[in-house]
Design goal:
By secondary structure, the protein is mainly alpha-helical. About 90% of the residues lie in helices and about 0% in strands.
């Protein structure tokens, strides 16, 4: 009997599984149909809303058209003005840059100016390198030491300016 009971249970399980599979299949079909109907209804609603919006736009278009034309006119004027200002600015920048470049090249032909340019670049590089690598190389110095360093730098700059002033004309190609 236990074998018959086992066969009956197995048979009932198979029937339950088939029924569950059938229910799942029917549920899928029902969900698919509902989704299809919902999509169709949504599409219809979108079409109705589109037609309604189009009616409102057509009504408002007559009211907004003069403002739209004025806006287009203003935007065109601003674009035109911006273009002309940009062209004028670019032309001015190119002209002034060209003049400045030729002036710099002319002045660098004078040995006094070239020497001062190199001296200035070397000084700036040294100071920046000192701050980058030593983190404030005046830190820990006494007030007297700082005053002496600043005085020495000031004296050096004054001496360089004095010598440059008197030698500039001697090497300048204009004179």
């Amino acid at each position: 009997m236990s074998s018959e009971k086992h066969d009956t249970q197995h048979h009932n399980q198979n029937q339950n599984q088939r029924k569950a599979a059938k229910d799942v299949k029917e549920g899928k079909e029902a969900a698919k149909n509902k989704a299809s109907h919902a999509a169709h209804d949504a599409h219809d609603a979108v079409d109705k809303a589109h037609e309604e919006i189009k009616k409102h736009i057509d009504n408002a278009e007559g009211i907004l058209l003069p403002y739209w034309d004025k806006l287009v006119e203003i935007v065109s004027a601003v674009a035109s003005r911006t273009t002309s200002v940009t062209k004028a600015t670019a032309s001015t920048v190119v002209t002034k840059t060209s003049y400045a470049t030729s002036r710099v090249f002319h002045e660098l032909q004078n040995p006094v100016v070239a020497f001062n340019a190199l001296l200035g670049a070397a000084s700036i590089t040294t100071v920046l390198n000192g701050y980058a690598n030593r983190r404030r190389f005046l830190k820990g110095k006494s007030d007297q030491d700082i005053a002496l360093i600043v005085s020495g730098v000031g004296l050096f700059v004054a001496a360089d300016a004095y010598v440059s002033y008197f030698n500039y004309k001697r090497f300048d190609k204009k004179y």
